[in-house]
């Protein structure tokens, strides 16, 4: 069943370019999409991943680790951030499963957790480099 209101266009702040001029809900489509959506806990974890990748410092660390495994000292030199600051960011990335590490003597060598992270980064950079249609 659909609902319809001709008054929607009279709502303050309404912009015809950004919204429907009438409220008509396709309940079948909504139900189909609802069935196809991921579980709320998976949605939260995924939001956490994108949130972590939304920070330029963490994104720079991930970008570097997509090229080469590096220790905290290397990453600090590369990013011009203190070792403590780099370690803090890497802990957050480890908690989210985006990076892993191994010990090599006194050094902690970090790497991307898997190829999924590498693919997310690559797709993000490709998308960000595309021209935008800002009508």
Give the total of domains.
Answer: 2
How many helices? The count is 6
Beta-strand content bin: 5-15%
Mean pLDDT: 88
Sheet with the most strands, sense and barrel status: 3 strands, antiparallel
Helical residues, percent: 40-55%
Number of strands: 3
Sheet with the most strands: spatial strand order:
1-3-2
Outline the low-pLDDT stretches: 1-7
* CATH architecture designation of the largest domain: Orthogonal Bundle
CATH topology of the largest domain: Arc Repressor Mutant, subunit A
CATH superfamily of the largest domain: Winged helix-like DNA-binding domain superfamily/Winged helix DNA-binding domain
User: In CATH, what is the class of the largest domain?
Assistant: Mainly Alpha
The first-to-last residue Cα distance is: 33 Å
Rg of Cα set: 22 Å
Class per helix and strand makeup? mainly alpha
- Quick one: overall form? elongated
SSE arrangement, N to C: HHHEHHEEH
Notes on the protein architecture:
The protein has two domains: 1-37, no CATH class; 40-129, Arc Repressor Mutant, subunit A (Orthogonal Bundle), CATH 1.10.10.10. The longest helix is centred in the last third of the chain and has 15 residues, at 115-129. Residues 1-7 have low confidence and may be disordered. Strand 2 and strand 3 form a beta hairpin. The chain is mainly alpha-helical. It has helices at 27-36, 40-53, 56-67, 72-79, 83-95, 115-129, and strands at residues 70-71, 99-104, 107-112. The protein is built from six helices and three strands, in the order αααβααββα.
Describe how the helices and strands are arranged.
Blueprint: H1 27-36, H2 40-53, H3 56-67, E1 70-71, H4 72-79, H5 83-95, E2 99-104, E3 107-112, H6 115-129
Antiparallel strand pairs: 1-3, 2-3
Helix pairs in contact: 4-5
């Amino acid at each position: 069943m659909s609902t319809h209101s001709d008054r929607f266009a009279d709502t303050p702040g309404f912009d015809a370019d950004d919204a429907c001029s009438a409220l008509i809900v396709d309940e079948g489509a909504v139900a189909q999409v609802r069935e196809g959506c991921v579980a709320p806990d998976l949605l939260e974890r995924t939001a956490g991943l994108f949130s972590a990748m939304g920070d330029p410092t963490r994104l720079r660390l991930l970008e570097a680790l997509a090229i080469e495994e590096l220790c905290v000292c290397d990453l600090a030199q590369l990013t011009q951030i203190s070792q403590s600051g780099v370690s803090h960011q890497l802990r957050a990335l480890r908690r989210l499963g985006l990076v892993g590490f191994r010990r090599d003597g006194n050094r902690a060598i970090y790497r991307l957790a898997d190829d999924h992270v590498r693919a997310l980064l690559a797709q993000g950079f490709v998308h960000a480099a595309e021209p935008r249609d800002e009508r």
